[in-house]
Design a protein that fits this description.
The chain is α/β, with parallel strands linked by helices and 268 residues long. The protein has 2 domains: 224 residues, Rossmann fold (3-Layer(aba) Sandwich), CATH 3.40.50; 40 residues, no CATH class. The protein contains 8 helices and 8 strands. The strands form 2 sheets. Strands 1, 2, 3, 6, 7 and 8 form a 6-stranded parallel beta sheet that branches. A two-stranded antiparallel ribbon has the order 4-5. It is globular. The chain starts with a strand and ends in a 50-residue tail after the last helix. Keywords: Oxidoreductase.
Length: 268
């Protein structure tokens, strides 16, 4: 039995996004997994990162959110809502994020969850720096050993999000979330589960989506994650730039994917 956290961000319980979340809960529980859901709208989640996030401040005159986050995490003076979500993440073996793609990103309430929960000392500012090592991040960190996957309804058509599509490829659009938010603190990131033309889905389309999602959930712990290069695996130099000879034949963010024939990564 595995522990799975679903972080859900949609204001309408009858939405397609909510239906995907409900399907995931039922499917996973039926297979013996333990599931927790953080339904951010239902929780009334505070999305704004501000001074109210700290019960004891280092500098009452001028807010440095990073400094206060570091102090609060280290001194166990975070607010109860932040600490509770961090405990859920540490409890989980996998985290599913359920949200619609709004303006090429996540809804503000989910971004606010990340801003507040991914605290200094928890999701960043972790590990020693020296030589080619810039802390424990990008494949290492507090959340290493866990998997993550996005379930993302999208209003646009699939071809609009292809390599030559006017919106850009979905891989590039999700890069800041996949690589910058999830891989950074150590999560192994699974390919996303997008649902295109989500506002035009008929009954037959929903049945296919449900079947496809169940297949993806069945492979949550066995399918291969996205092959991002680990920061401290030996592929980056002391300036955290990809070493010469790596990433040949690729462009953009794809150079940061491990390629056939690359040297084996070495992690401490």
């Amino acid at each position: 039995m595995s522990h799975i956290l679903i972080v859900h961000a949609h204001p309408e319980p009858q939405s397609l996004t909510s239906a995907l979340k409900d399907l995931a809960v039922g499917f996973l529980q039926a297979r013996g997994h333990e599931v927790q859901v953080s339904d951010l709208y239902a929780m009334g989640w505070k999305a704004i990162a501000d001074r109210e996030d700290f019960t004891d401040t280092v500098d009452p005159e001028r807010l440095s959110y990073i400094a206060e986050s570091r102090h609060a995490y280290a001194s166990d003076t975070q607010t109860l809502d932040i600490a509770a979500e961090q405990r859920k993440l540490l409890w989980a073996d996998a985290v599913l994020f359920s949200f619609p793609l709004w303006w090429f990103g996540m809804p503000a309430i989910l971004k606010g969850w990340v801003d507040r929960v991914f605290a200094f000392g928890f999701a960043y500012g972790v590990g020693e720096h020296g030589g080619e090592r810039w802390g424990d991040r990008y494949g290492e960190g507090v959340l290493a050993g866990r998997r993550a996957m996005l379930m993302v309804p999208i209003g646009g058509r699939a071809r609009h999000y292809s390599d030559r599509g006017v919106n850009g490829s979905l891989e590039e659009i999700l890069w800041p979330i996949h690589h910058g938010t999830l891989f950074y603190p150590g999560l192994a990131v699974m390919p996303p589960f997008p649902v295109y033309s989500s506002d035009r889905l008929d009954d037959a389309g929903w049945q296919q989506v449900a079947t496809d999602l169940e297949q993806r959930l069945a492979g949550l712990f066995s399918d291969a994650p996205i092959a991002y290069r680990c920061q401290n695996g030996g592929h980056y130099d002391t300036d955290q730039r990809l070493k010469p000879g790596l990433g040949q034949g690729e462009g953009g963010t794809r150079i940061h994917l491990v390629q056939p024939g690359d040297p084996e990564e070495r992690l401490a």
